[in-house]
Amino acid sequence: MDEKQALDAFAALSQETRLRIVRLLVTAGPEGLPAGAIGEAMDGATSSRISFHLSHLEHAGLVVSRREGRSIIYSAALPVLSGLVAFLMRDCCQGHPEVCAPAVAALSSCC
Amino acid sequence: MDEKQALDAFAALSQETRLRIVRLLVTAGPEGLPAGAIGEAMDGATSSRISFHLSHLEHAGLVVSRREGRSIIYSAALPVLSGLVAFLMRDCCQGHPEVCAPAVAALSSCC
DNA sequence: TCAATATTTCAAGAATCATTGATATTATGG
DNA sequence: CCATAATATCAATGATTCTTGAAATATTGA
């Protein structure tokens, strides 16, 4: 994860629909969801709108896709999400462990 | 940290100059840096440009400021950064601890 | 093969954002 | 109190981004 990748990832996560899609896909797990189901979950957004955001997320590396029959299945790119957090944390902690302590606590309690 | 705050924070972090400012301030620690020094560190950006980005970051809650004589000193809002990571992680881990493991490892090794 | 389904691509318009240069505000030293 | 220093604000411009609606592509079942 370099600066360019981090900027792309943050830009992708800074849009309401995309942030919700990422969160939906992360909870959906590795099996993922077809584009149509994602659109229905987003207040029934139009297909072109969902396609635009999914393409954006995929380009940023936050999701991956595969075809299954007529559907395209999207799932969260878990290692990239981890890498983004690691990037932010790596640069957060230089000499100031108090930055990380609450984040570590949040991670420990959720996993 | 709610969705709105997270969106603002991600938007702030998705701009190159602002991401660099945040990283600079985090490494600078609680004592912070005056706006002028931050501008010099950003390839000598104009004062209005730095002021614009600092204002943006402060509005997003990622930095705080205080006056000291003629200078305004900016420093990273460490608890907010922690909260952002916790927000992302909290929603990342639902039933899928493999998302968090690498992030936990990165945090553990840096603090 | 044909019709229907699922999704993507494209062009155009509105909205938001970043940069610049000029001007205003605030504070200090002499 | 004045001149200077440090920073913020404002207006204008150019660049990106989001949304919509229409048309294109890919896949399957009958």
UniProtKB/TrEMBL annotation, chains A, B:
InterPro entries linked: ArsR-like_HTH (IPR011991), HTH_ArsR_DNA-bd_dom (IPR001845), Metal_resp_trans_reg (IPR051011), WH-like_DNA-bd_sf (IPR036388), WH_DNA-bd_sf (IPR036390)
Annotated CDD domains: HTH_ARSR
Organism superkingdom: Bacteria
GO MF terms, alphabetically ordered: DNA binding; DNA-binding transcription factor activity
Keywords: DNA-binding, Transcription, Transcription regulation
Domain spans labelled HTH arsR-type: 1-96
The protein's name in its UniProt record: ArsR family transcriptional regulator
